Protein 1
Amino acid sequence: MKPPAFFRVGLRFENIDKRYGALLALRKVSLGIAPGECVVFAGRNGSGKTTLLRVAARLVRPSRGALSFPGESRDGQPNAVRPGFVAHATMVYDELTAEENLLLFARLQEVAKPENRVEALLWEVGLSERRGSLVRTFSRGMRQRVAIARALLHEPAILLFDEPATGLDPQGVTWLAGAIRQLRDSGRTILMSLHGESEISSLGTRAIRLDAGSVVADTRTGATFRSILTFADA
Amino acid sequence: MSLLSNTAVLLGKELRTEFRSRELLTTTIVFILIVIVLFSFTFDPTSDESRRLAPGLLWLAFLFASSLMLQPCFLREQHNDTLSALRLSVSDPFAIFLAKLAANTLFLLLTELLLLPLFAVMYNVPVMQVLHWLVLVFFLASLGISIAGTALSAISAQARMRELLLPLLMLPLLTPILVASTEVTKALFDRAPYVQWKGIGFLAVFDVVFLTALWLFGEYLLEE
């Protein structure tokens, strides 16, 4: 994938709480993520991984605390701190073609020369020949490729992956791991939530374990890194 | 400029998906058609009786049909979590509302205009001489229904009993529109038709007030 042209941006979560009624989904989460880091969030279902990523995407407003994006960004480039988000839901329209979906989101994000950008991305994710097919006719793996292309349209400095491998076959997981590796090597900051150890989790440079909305472990070293991922599913 | 260009792009998407599937238009047209045909059997459509009853019947059919049309408005954005993708992409969330309410107004207006000739024939109501005034009332009322209905659709889509909630919230809120548009239409169907400016003014004020409220608070309706 094309390396980003302009930025090195990190994230800082400061004392973040998120409450849904009586449920406290995140409790006093304070984390600094350096530009270019590839962070794996592990934890049981309901531990707060998805909420944390949605806070980072600014889809969810924290009940308390602040989110900031420290780093270098080119002046007048608002897309630099608009993260790209890939979740297990594909976030694309089934009743539009792959090309129509990407053009729609490229135009909404005011990407320069949207047709060229979409053409390049369709080629990069291997969907050039199916560009005119409705997304509802795609396999799960192909839909996830469209989802990744959508997230990359505006060349984001930060990428968020929320359990991106859900429902993918082994070939799909291998393709996804390759794509994330390229994105990581291009210098982007990547945050992903995963279940257990996998081909994708091995790409992480840092592992953070969440439990009941709190950070309970955080490491960059090999043995502890692995234990965080495995213990999460134990 | 971002707001207008984002709205135009999203409106294009709404029109494309609807004209590709024709789900909303078909459902709404069939519903109104059934109401118009069924009621035409229940009373003798002499000219005087029609002038008295038909405006209320017409607007009741439009109102119930609009609740069918507005139900999927935000519900189908939840299927693949496309609402999140839209929120991540637009610079002003009001563009999402603006595009949806513009599309809903267009669909509703199109349905009303398509069924007006049939209504005129079955209920023996002359509409040609007041057609331009009828189009104005249809537009103002459809816009009001779409503004309030789109906002309520965003609220109900996040609730548990979403299918029930929208009509429950929408029908009482839209009663003033129903009353005003029925009164204006009744005046237009009179033997000596006249324009009831009070009703038209009320519809215009309703539209402005609700559109302003949506512009100010719409963002909060999309939050999780």
Note: Residues 2-222 of chain B form one domain.
Protein 2
Amino acid sequence: MNRKAIKWGITISILLTILLSVCLIALSMGTMNISIDQLFWIFFKGVDSIEYTILMEIRVPRILVGIAVGGALSLAGVILQAIFRNPLVEPYTLGISGGAALGVSICIVLSLNQHYALSLPFFGMIGAGCIIIIIYMLNALGMVHNIQRLLLIGVMISFISNSLFMLIISLSKSEQMHSIMFWTMGSLEEPNRLLVYGLLAVSLIGCMIISIFSSDLNILSLGEEDAFYLGLNVERIRNVLLIMASILTGFSVSISGIIGFVGLVVPHFVRQFIGSDHRTIIPASYITGAIFLILCDLLARTIIRPMELPVGIVTGLVGGTIFIYALVKK
Amino acid sequence: MSNTIQKFPVLTVSQLRCSQSSQFQLNNISFDIVEGCCVGIIGPNGSGKTTLLKAVTGYIPAKQGNICYCNHSIESYNQKDLSKEIAIVLQSTELDQSICVEDYILLGRNPYKKRWQFWESEHDLKTVKKMMKFTQIESLRNRQINALSGGEKQLVRIARALAQEPKLFLLDEPTNHLDIAHQLQILTLLNRLKRENNMSIMIVLHDLNLASEFCDTLILMQHGTIFRMGSAKEVLTYQNIESVYHTTVVEGENPISKKPYVFLVSEDNLDLSKTQSKHITENIP
């Protein structure tokens, strides 16, 4: 048996154990505290109790969204940082979040969200999808000769969509402005069960597909030219990974809003402890991202209970502090 | 000469024209490399040496002409299969990642990775160990590559390329920025590869004397074309060097190997050297 495979197994099992315990803690804490030993009893016997309703209707979906979004954003961060060989790139750098925000704000300003519950994430996906298609076309048609230029184009697209977003806000009425702003700050609350499961499926399948490419990501992080000499079809792999990262980001953003810093901090954090092998980094980032987001969400909904903070604010505060700490320590 | 004719040509380049940027192109390049032969490419900066190496790997596509590896055009090869045959050590490869030496060299086994293979095979690990032993970097195994010295980094680059188990080995100025002991170590290594593994080597060198000492054939390039090609004695002449590099040198001979040796002359002594160059050549033992 390969020594690396054993090390991989140990790392992943430790992280999964941590994730499981964090999930249990997040289930038990909240506006109404439920002790952990009571949890099992409620799940199996207390179907009619209030606690059961709270758990199944509020806390479990939140945790599932937390796993899906935290994992997806961290993975997208890992991929983009490897492709662009730039540690400051994050999933939102390419303007995907700006596109989603634009879609959502248009939806709110046109009052389309009042008739149909799914219209908000739907418009978010359309907005994110447009940006993905623009970037993919530019890349696939060979109009961008240099991958670094693609990054700059992404930043510019991000600026443009942000300006359009501001324009729409300035034209909107004050109650619309409030709901747009609230969406922007991000939340893991998602009342629609179908969307929760859909998002979780997309993010888990994404993680598996990306895992197949993990050795290729190792080669790709040597740089394009070296990857070519090692027999890698750089163009194809890069396109697949770029699309995967965009889809993961697009889905997350359109359902949970803009939750910053997860995609930037988690890959750094994981790399510092686990090394540079993407075969380990990819699953480890997914799990660590989930843990991080669930913990941030727990903080967001318990720190000033019964009130709730937008989770984006907490991830920014906590993530930023961790990031600075990691940099100074290095 | 008689045994070179019997040897099998590994690489045949004919009438090659290609360009990396709009200002510069290679033109009308033709040459052969036979099995177990070391070809040195020399020439001034910007004469197209690196471009030629990259064209041979297929990284820069040919606009005209043909590059054949083992009688098949390199375009007909699958990129992964070609990287099992041809490996290149670039000057520009920066070892700035934090990855340990062994893992880095293992990346050189990528061409042999099967489609759904997740972990390296025992054979990969053995090959890497062999290459580390060959390049004498076993002791660096667990060191981070960004913390290595220049000479060690160069050996690591070479080991990674050797892990591809190539039959044609291309090197772009492998002795740059290295002290003489390391220069000698690397060139001796290449000599061993040539002799023991019958590997063909194409090497870009700036140091004419190293090129003369270690290469079987030299290609002198100028403005993207081949100016002269042949043995060191034929290429490293006073006239050739003056017309390509626009500098005056004095020819001599290595006292041990009897191969041509080129002495650089500073401009202050130029007048003196012109009158005495013949005299100096005769007086060198």
Note: DSSP finds 14 helices and no strands in chain A.
